[in-house]
Every structure is written in C-alpha cells, then in structure tokens.
C-alpha cells in the first residue's frame, strides 16, 4: 500500500510525487496514458512571474520560480533562465505596465533601449519592462525527469510510475477515501492526489465532489529551426496580461514569441473556450502569425512547420485548486492551473507535500481551497 | 468568382485521371500540385531514356499520361507549383489552402497564399518513400530509392559511380535498371525478402504490370546480381559513403553473416507511406494497409467518410500507377454523377467493368504487400548511437531512454526525445519510431501539411475567393 496515490503524470503530478517522496512518503503515480501525455505535452514551458497580478497566484509563482531553479540544479529539463520582456505599443500602455511592475514587487528593469534586449524587435514600440526571473523549461522532460529524479534520490521502491492505468472510481471507508479503483484493479492508499489537470473535474466527480475545471483551448505555432537565434528572451505584448485574466468566451490572441534550445521559435498563445475541439482553426493561426510578425518583422520569411493545440485546465476564478478536500477526507487536489501549470508545478507539489506529511504549508492556501466554488446547480 | 465543382490535389496518375474524367463530364475543375510539372512520384522522375527505349507497359503508360495531361491543360485550371498545406470546411464548401512562390517587388521571391473554394475534393497526394534507419544512413551518398530515380532524371548520377540498390519490393528493379542503363555500375541489388511466392518471382510480380522483361534484360546485360534475403545493414565512410556492410539475413531479417561491398552510392527503399495529411485534417475515417500504414477508408465510389471528399491512388493503399489511374477515373465519374452532370458518352454511374478491374488490381497490390513485408528484424541492425530521426538527430538510445522515462507510444516518444519534430515532420522516421514503440503507425496529425511562411500565413484571408 502506498502512502499517496497521485492521479495524473503531468508536470503537476510529477512535482507532487517528487516533493511527497522527498518528504519521506511512499508514492504511486498513475496515468491512463504515457508520462506527460496530457496538457503538459502541449504547453510552452514558460515559468513566469511577469504576467501575474499581485496576489496569491503571484506569491505561488515566486515560490515556484525559486523551486524550479533549485530543481534545475541536478535534473536536466532544458531549464533556461532567459528572462521575459513585456513590450508596450503606446506610452499609455507603458505607463500601466510600469505601474503593474511596481505593484508586483518582483525584480524588474525598465527596458528603455528595446533593441539592446532584442535586436530584431519591430521599430516604434513605446518601451517595455524586463523580468529577469522569467524562465523556460521543456515541460515534458521536466515531468518525466522529475519522477525519475525522485526515484533515483528517494528509491525506486518508494516512487512508482504506472502508465496505462485509468482511474475509474474511488475506494471509501468510514467516509474517507482509502484508494482508487482502476482499469488494472483496486489500489489502496492513505491519500489520493487529484492531479488530473483538465480532467480534474471528472476525477473529482468520481469521488463524489464538485470541482469546476473546464478546458480553454490554446494553439501554438512552431517554426523551422533557425541557425542563428532571432529571439533571445520570451517576448510578449502587454495585451497578454489582460488576456490571461480575461473572462471572455471568444477567441483571444496575443503574441508570445520565444526561441528554444532546438532552434525553433514558439509562437503562442490563443485562448478560447470551445470544449475539447481539436479542429484546426485557421483564423487563430493567422492571428498568431500576424502578431508575431508585427513584433518581429524578420519572422515574415520564416516558415511555420507545425502547430498543435492543448486544453488549459481553468477554474471560473482563474486560480488553481490546491489542498485537502474538506468534503472528502483523504482526497487532495492539485489541478486547474490553467495556462500556468508548468510554472506553478513545483510550488504546488511542495505545498501539498507539506500538507500530506502533516506540516502546515509555508504559503497560505486559502485562495486555492477546493470547496470555494458554489455547489453544482442540479437540474 | 464561383467555387469550383472539384479541386484535385496531386498531379500523378490518380489526380490527372480524376481531374480529366470530371472535366470531360463538364465539371469546373482545378488541379494543384507542388511540382513544376505533372507526373507525381511515378512519371515525373522517369529518365529521358525511357522515352527513347520502348519498354513495354511502362512506356505505354507514360505516353498515355502525357496525352491525358495535354488534354487536361485545356479542360481544367492547372495550378502547378502550389503547395497545399490545409483544407478546411467553409459552410457548404471546402476551402483548399495553398502557397505559391512568386517574384516580389525587388525580384526577391515571396510566398503567397492561395485559397480555392470547391464543392468536392479529390485527395490524390500519392505516397512518399519509406526508408528504414540503419547505422550510417545519414552519410552523403545514401539515397532513398525514389531519390535515386529523381537524381537519374536530372542525370546527376554520373557515369562511373558504383551503386548498391537495397530494400524490398519490385520497385528496386526499375531503379536498378535505370541506373545501369545510365552508365552507372550497379554492384548488387539486394532484396530483403525471400524466395517464396511473388517475392521469389519479382519478374512475375512486375510482369503483371507488364514491366518485367525490360528490366530483367537490362540487369542481365549489365551483369547485375540480384540477391534475395540480403540487406545493407550499415553504411560506412569518413565524410561520405565508401562502403556498405551487406548481410545475409533470415526470414525475420536478423543478420546471419556480413561482408563488405565498396560503393559510393546506396539507394534504399522499403516501400512507401501513403500521404493522407489532408484527409486526417478533415476528419476522414482511416484504416491500416496490410503493412500497417495508415490509409484513408473509401467506399466503392472512392468517397471518404466525409461528404464531398474523395481519395484515389496511394492514399487509399499503395498499389502502383495503374491502379491509381483507375481509382482516379472512378472517383471522377462518381463525383460527376454526384454533382449531377452526367458525363458525355458514358453512363452516369461507374461502369461495373472498371469496378471489377479495380478489384483485381487491388487483390494484386495486396499480394505484393504480402510478398514484400517489412520484418521487425531490422531493429537488430541498429546500435544505440544510430540516428533514427535525421532532422532532429535523435538516436535509438535517446528513444529507448524516453521509453524508460514513461513514454509508451510514438507520440510521447516524440514529446520527450523529439523524433519527427523537425523539417520533414516525421515522414522519414515515423514508421520506424512507431515500430520501435511496438505500435502500428498512427494516422498523421499534421494541421500544417506543408511548411508555410509566417508572412503567407498572416495573409491567408486577403485572398479574394477565386
Ligand atoms: C497552448 C498552451 C500553452 C501553454 N503554455 C504554458 C506555459 O508556457 N507555461 C505554463 O506554466 N503553462 C502553460 N500551459 C498550461 C500547462 O500546460 C498546464 O497548466 C499544465 O500542463 C497542467 O499540468 P497538469 O499536470 O495539471 O495536467 P496534465 O498534463 O493534463 O496531466 C493530467 C494527467 O492526468 C491524466 N488523467 C486524467 N484523467 C485520468 C484518469 N481518470 N485516470 C488516470 N489518469 C488520468 C491525463 O492522462 C494526464 O496525463 C499551456 C497550455 C496550453 C494548452
């Protein structure tokens, strides 16, 4: 019997497993697919503090940023501390950006001479703010190698990864969760962590509790590998910050452009609520291309060679769900991180491991409570 | 302007026959192909020498194809140099998105987007070579069998070179014969499959298509040995190919004994992979060919599961030029019947005679595939440092490491180790990676069927409806 079963081998599940094992717990990670085959396999891998409004999510992001750096020292997942550059088209927007940066209270510098940061950036932008803490990882490698590192450091007996195992229900006894029912049989555990990402709502329902996690689709364009890097940092426009927090159902895009170690340029990121529809949307791709070219005119002659989409797990208030579920003892949640799950994974895992091992979490989890949503309306 | 009745993608035997049949029935037809001339894989790459030396059916087929292309030029809107990268549904119509390169303001070439709207679509995109990885296959001098054909066409294979042709299937013979005739020394032809059934009689296999005698005579004349149950299992050379390891192999393709053969060129081909990207973009049902390749499922009239979308030729299963042309013709007739213009001089529906011929040719294509399978033993030719994906330089070792990390299928291997993420988008290594993952190759998910510049992509809706 494991101390903890983690449902989901995405980056969040991997981080939960890593920190739980570090805390001395015996962990089994289950996934119905392979490792990192869910939304983690569609993410860009940005670890951002720059795009968060001051508040609990920013606090989580700052903690997570520090933890990512610790993890990168010893585990290889292509961590790049490249920094993020947020640019403003007009002086008015620049003023807002600067005001936000001051309120955030994270390390930043005013980027007066944009060309010094990004020589190929379009002319005529009003200015920008540079955030040195923004970084990037290869998210799939990060998930897979975190689990591997936990095994290597804390014992292959203590950390098990089981792929191809679907959780179909929960075992309960005396009003507590005591394990899961799976496609491969029942598994007992003292605690179960729901790290099923976009499918976290479904897993919660299997346990009889309501959790409103829904998909928010995003497309990414990937260019051919470039021999000389054209884009040094992660670069995006101020509009991105408002889009991230937006409640709009419709399509929103704002170019987020960045180079990767493999030489390709990634262009994100659209946001729209269309359920789990994978049909290619040319208007989305067109807008992403147009916005990328507007930021970096040299990209006009660069070819896009592929595109893919994924479904961010979002909650109505755009905050993740992290913590013990008071409605169902033994059940914990670590899901609903929307477009920031990669960035927020280590802090999520670290805080949850503190809860699981009976410590009080080093950051207040009040804003992320699983029971903060109104009860599901029954019809 | 109004939409087309039919847009055909692909200018090989299937596409040309389909477009011509539909145009002759009075439909408004456009045909797009990325090449500068019609012909597809099969005819475009034929060397000029084929025109001179009359070699049975093949030449016959070429004559016919040239005639058809000529007529098509008058009856349909031919758009060469157009790369189709996506097809989408637009209300009742289909929108076919292509890019073409033209001279920009300062003579600097720019890529322009083109959108054609149409009531029906015929996917006749053919197939591409299927190489298998082995140590040294990335050395300059190692070509795909199809690539060698293309080189011949351009007379780029200089006389005096020494070539080994290896792989499986009857296609190796025309490649070897073409090389021999062009003055190249063909050291050996190595067929990995064995002496039973059709594989023991490649001449017979080809003679069905009527091409055998000529190749046999050519190879004999040039004293080219043809060995079954042999394969090139490694290529060697400092900076370019100097010699290969030739192995005698068993029925499962495991190595029994090896020797060294000097050569500066190696042409390898292990069959073909149907190109079905456009069909999967539209959500057409797919199935698997006998050799495991994903193919588009079609009904008796070559119609896919998506209304208005048809497929003909290799995308429905690799079967060669004659079958492709027939399927194209059947599709053309069916589309004409569906769109309500009875073709002049032919009954509206597809004649039973054509359908029966198709049944026979498909049975033959299946028999060929059965006779020339790809056996798993090739995996034992690879070392840990053998490249499997050349675009991203991914080794077998990296793939095995991804599997140890928890990648259980080809997609997750790609996510962790990057095979198939590069320029060719897995066209070269996809089959091999799926086999290494212990999986049948999955239908491709390529929302961009071809690379497109961001400059063209940002302008896709500027294009006025044709
Ligand atoms: C286009 C796009 C770009 C993004 N860019 C970024 C970025 O730059 N930075 C960032 O931080 N975030 C980004 N994100 C968001 C990020 O990808 C997600 O927040 C994060 O990957 C979520 O991780 P997860 O582990 O919670 O979920 P997932 O990775 O989806 O993992 C959940 C796992 O649970 C498994 N599962 C589900 N149900 C069951 C069941 N019943 N039984 C067993 N297993 C089950 C699934 O198979 C899956 O593997 C992006 C997202 C998208 C779509």
Automatic annotation (TrEMBL), chain A:
Top-level taxon of origin: Bacteria
GO cellular component, one term: cytoplasm
Keyword Transferase: no
Keyword Iron-sulfur among record annotations: no
GO MF annotations in UniProt: oxidoreductase activity
Keywords: Oxidoreductase
Matches recorded under InterPro entries: FAD-dep_OxRdtase, FAD/NAD-bd_sf
Stretches assigned to the FAD dependent oxidoreductase domain: 3-355
Record protein name field: Glycine/D-amino acid oxidase-like deaminating enzyme
Highest classification ranks of the organism: Bacteria, Bacillati, Actinomycetota, Actinomycetes, Streptosporangiales
From TrEMBL, chain B:
Keywords, comma-separated and alphabetical: Oxidoreductase
InterPro entries noted in UniProt: BFD-like_2Fe2S-bd_dom (IPR007419), BFD-like_2Fe2S-bd_dom_sf (IPR041854), FAD/NAD-bd_sf (IPR036188), FAD/NAD-binding_dom (IPR023753), Metab_Enz_Cyan_OpOx_G3PDH (IPR051691), Opine_Oxase_asu/HCN_bsu (IPR017224)
Keyword Lipoprotein on entry: no
Listed Pfam families: Fer2_BFD, Pyr_redox_2
GO molecular function per UniProt: oxidoreductase activity
Signal peptide extent: none
UniProt domain BFD-like [2Fe-2S]-binding: residue ranges: 387-434
FAD/NAD(P)-binding domain ranges (all copies): 4-316
Keyword check for Oxidoreductase: yes
Protein's UniProt name: NADPH-dependent 2,4-dienoyl-CoA reductase/sulfur reductase-like enzyme
Naturally occurring in which organism (per UniProt): Nonomuraea soli
Higher taxonomy: Bacteria, Bacillati, Actinomycetota, Actinomycetes, Streptosporangiales
């Amino acid at each position: 019997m494991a101390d903890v079963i983690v449902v989901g081998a995405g980056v969040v599940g991997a981080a939960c497993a890593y920190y739980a094992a570090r805390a001395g717990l015996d962990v089994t990670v289950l996934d119905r697919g392979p490792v990192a085959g869910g939304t983690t396999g569609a993410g860009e891998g940005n670890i951002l503090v720059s795009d968060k409004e001051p508040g609990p999510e920013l606090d989580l992001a700052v903690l997570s940023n520090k933890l990512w750096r610790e993890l990168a020292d010893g585990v290889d997942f292509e961590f790049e501390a490249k920094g993020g550059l947020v640019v403003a088209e007009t002086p008015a927007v620049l003023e807002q950006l600067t005001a936000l940066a001051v309120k955030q209270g994270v390390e930043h510098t005013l980027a007066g001479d944009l060309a010094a940061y990004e020589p190929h950036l379009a002319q005529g932008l009003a200015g920008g703010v540079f955030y040195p803490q923004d970084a990037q990882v290869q998210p799939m490698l990060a998930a897979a190698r975190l689990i591997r590192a936990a095994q290597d450091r804390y014992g292959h007996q203590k950390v098990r990864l089981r792929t191809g195992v679907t959780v179909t229900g929960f075992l309960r006894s005396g009003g507590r969760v005591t394990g899961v029912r799976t496609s491969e049989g029942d598994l007992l555990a003292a605690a179960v962590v729901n790290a099923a990402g976009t499918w976290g709502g479904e897993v919660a329902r299997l346990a009889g509790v309501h959790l409103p996690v829904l998909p928010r689709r995003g497309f990414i364009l990937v260019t051919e590998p470039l021999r000389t890097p054209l884009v040094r940092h992660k670069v995006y426009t101020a509009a991105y910050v408002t889009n991230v927090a937006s409640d709009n159902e419709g399509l929103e895009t704002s170019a987020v452009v960045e180079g990767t170690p493999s030489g390709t340029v990634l262009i994100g990121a659209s946001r729209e609520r269309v359920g789990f529809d994978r049909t290619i949307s040319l208007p989305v791709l067109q807008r992403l291309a147009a916005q990328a070219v507007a930021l970096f005119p040299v990209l006009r002659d660069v070819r896009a060679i592929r595109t893919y989409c994924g479904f961010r797990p979002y909650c109505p208030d755009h905050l993740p769900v992290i913590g013990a579920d008071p409605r169902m003892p033994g059940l914990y949640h670590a899901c609903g991180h929307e477009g920031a799950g990669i960035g927020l994974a280590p802090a999520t895992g670290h805080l949850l491991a503190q809860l699981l091992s009976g410590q009080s979490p080093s950051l207040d989890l009040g804003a992320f409570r699983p029971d903060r949503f109104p009860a599901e309306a029954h019809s | 302007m109004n939409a087309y009745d039919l847009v055909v993608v692909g200018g090989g035997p299937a596409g040309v026959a389909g477009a011509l049949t539909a145009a002759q029935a009075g439909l408004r037809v456009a045909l797009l192909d990325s090449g500068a001339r019609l012909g597809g894989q099969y005819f475009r790459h034929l060397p000029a020498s084929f025109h001179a030396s009359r070699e049975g059916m093949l030449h016959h087929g070429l004559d016919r194809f040239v005639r058809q292309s000529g007529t098509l030029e008058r009856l349909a809107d031919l758009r060469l140099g157009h790369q189709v990268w996506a097809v989408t549904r637009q209300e009742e119509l289909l929108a076919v998105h292509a890019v073409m390169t033209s001279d920009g303001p300062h003579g600097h070439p720019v890529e322009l987007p083109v959108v054609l709207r149409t009531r029906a679509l015929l996917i006749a995109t053919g197939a591409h070579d299927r190489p298998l990885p082995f140590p040294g296959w990335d050395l300059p001098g190692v070509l795909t069998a199809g690539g060698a054909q293309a080189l011949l066409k351009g007379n780029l294979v200089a006389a005096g070179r020494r070539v080994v042709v290896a792989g499986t299937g009857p296609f190796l013979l025309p490649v070897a014969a073409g090389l021999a005739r062009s003055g190249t020394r063909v050291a050996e032809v190595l067929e990995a499959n064995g002496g039973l059934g059709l594989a023991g009689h490649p001449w017979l296999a080809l003679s069905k298509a009527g091409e055998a005698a000529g190749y046999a005579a050519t190879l004999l004349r040039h004293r080219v040995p043809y060995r079954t149950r042999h394969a090139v299992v490694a290529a060697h050379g400092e900076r370019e190919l100097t010699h290969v390891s030739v192995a005698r192999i068993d029925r499962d393709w495991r190595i029994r004994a090896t020797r060294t053969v000097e050569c500066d060129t190696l042409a390898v081909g292990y069959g073909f992979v149907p190109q079905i990207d456009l069909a999967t973009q539209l959500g057409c049902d797919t199935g698997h060919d006998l050799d495991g390749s994903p193919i588009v499922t079609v009904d008796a009239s070559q119609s896919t599961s998506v209304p208005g979308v048809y497929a003909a030729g290799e995308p429905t299963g690799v079967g060669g030029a004659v079958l492709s042309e027939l399927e194209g013709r059947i599709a053309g007739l069916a589309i004409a019947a569906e769109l309500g213009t009875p073709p002049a001089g032919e009954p509206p529906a597809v004649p039973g005679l054509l359908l029966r011929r198709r049944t026979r040719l498909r049975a033959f294509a299946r028999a060929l595939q059965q006779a020339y399978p790809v056996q798993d033993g090739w995996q034992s030719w690879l070392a840990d440092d053998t490249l499997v994906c050349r675009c991203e330089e991914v080794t077998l070792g990296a793939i095995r490491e991804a599997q140890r990390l928890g990648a259980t299928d080809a997609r997750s291997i790609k996510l962790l180790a990057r095979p198939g993420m590069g320029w060719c988008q897995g066209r070269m290594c996809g089959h091999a990676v799926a086999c290494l993952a212990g999986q049948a190759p999955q239908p491709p998910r390529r929302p961009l069927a071809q690379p497109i510049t961001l400059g063209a992509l940002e302008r896709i809706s500027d294009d006025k409806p044709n």
